[in-house]
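QA checklist item 7 of 12: single-chain prediction sanity check.
[x] sequence parsed
[x] length recorded as 377
[x] structure emitted
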Amino acid sequence: MRFLERERTVVEEVLPGLDQRLAGLPLADLEAVDSPGVRLFRDAGGPGLLVPAEHGGRGADLLTALRVQRAIGSRSPSLAVATTMHHFSVASLVEAAATGGGMEWLLLAAIAKDDLLLASGFAEGRTGQGILHPSLTARTEGDKVFLSGSKKPCSLARSMNLLTASLPLPGPDGKDRLAIALIPAEAPGLSVRPFWGSPILAGAESDEVVLDDVEVPAELLVRTDVTADGRLDQLQTVGFVWFEGLMTAGYLGAASALVERTLGNPHADSAVAAEAVACVESVALALEGLAADVATAGVTQDTLSRSLICRYAAQDAINRVLSLCVEALGGMAFIGSGDIAYLNSACRALAFHPPSRTRMAAPLAEYFSGRAPLRIP
């Protein structure tokens, strides 16, 4: 089987026509601020990929989704990043629908039927700020909840139908607990401002979303048991596993695009090309092992720890691939097209997504030594 053939075959099976349409466009167009990638993803039914079949979606499992994201990342890193943010929000809703008694299933059905896109307003991207610490402030007025603040960067800011955001709400013991709100993009008080100044990953639509006393509909508020110490309940654990796995797969796809170019270059050294293939395929196998764990044992703290290990190992493997492929492709390939330099830069952004390796060093060491439950600081 040819390199990336399996992943692209899966995309054709679940999102017919998407890979072919992406392949027909220059990388520079797909990565631009006005990229058509999100529209093509929506037109192919991508928003419903993870929605269970009984709610009108494609019902993709983690293994399928990982292969889809790798294939998409090989065509457009920006689209892989943007859609990962959507998918992890949907995966969390699926978990909430499976274990809760709310109306989450109606929202899932609407996502699949109307191809709704979810943007994520969690606290990533803030230096020194833990991902579980909300970036928005909430006020309550009886049973009503209002949000203010901003999220920057926020992928899919211009194409989203709903914004998912974290907020603190008092629990039964008076201590604040994390809640997840879903806010319609057209809600009064919600606006979008330009923020992303880099040409790298500009197609992910990562601008600033501003909320000015925006009311959260009661039926679109999901409460969790997560407190400020960062311990995770099942809903959050599921979301993190999907986030880390899918984001890693997307950047693996971007690195795979460089490997594909190296394999297709008759002047590239065969030993270098083979080593580059080994690097990316080893990460793919680790991710597939993660998906197998989820399929057989469900999602646990152990699964989350494995997803983080996959992600950090992928960062190292991708850095090795970049070094191998950029040199093997040579100066003329670098000069003749902006694609090589672009992919080299885009792949490195995996390290910027939360939680960083540095922040997780102590929690992972404590977890694997048996001293403490896994925390996300």
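[x] summary fact logged: Residues 124-129 have pLDDT under 50 and may be disordered.
[ ] second reviewer sign-off
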